[in-house]
Design brief:
The chain is an alpha+beta fold. The chain has one domain: GMP Synthetase, Chain A, domain 3 (2-Layer Sandwich), CATH 3.30.300.260. 37% of the residues lie in helices and 31% in strands. A 4-stranded antiparallel sheet has the order 1-2-3-4, covered by helices on one side. A hairpin with a 3-residue loop joins β1 and β2. It starts with a strand and ends with a helix.
């Protein structure tokens, strides 16, 4: 499901970014038998659209430095967003179990 994030750059430039999570990543495993260990993988996402001053800016026209800053800002927020989604999903499962009893 696409996520929307509002960001402000250069002190006053409001930007709304729509992005989609491709892979939530995983922390990896660094204990136990070596054949069961694997490295951590960061979350992966893609930009879907960028809006500046209410108008959509085609992704091909987003300057590379701005695109990098947008991706860094999203990457910084991903861990807390993913944790919040996991907590919401766990709560929904708990409620469904309570309702089924």
């Amino acid at each position: 499901m696409p996520q929307t994030q509002s960001l402000t750059f250069y002190d006053e430039l409001p930007i709304v970014v729509l992005w989609r999570l491709i892979h939530p990543g995983h922390p990896g495993r660094t204990y136990g038998p070596p054949e069961l260990c694997f490295p951590a993988e960061p979350p992966e996402f893609e930009l879907v659209s960028v809006q500046v001053f209410g108008g959509e800016l085609p992704l091909d026209n987003v300057p590379a430095p701005l695109r990098e800053r947008l991706e860094e800002a999203i990457q910084d927020e991903l861990p807390s967003l993913l944790e919040s989604e996991r907590a919401d999903a766990a709560e929904a499962r708990a409620e469904a179990r309570r309702d089924s009893v």
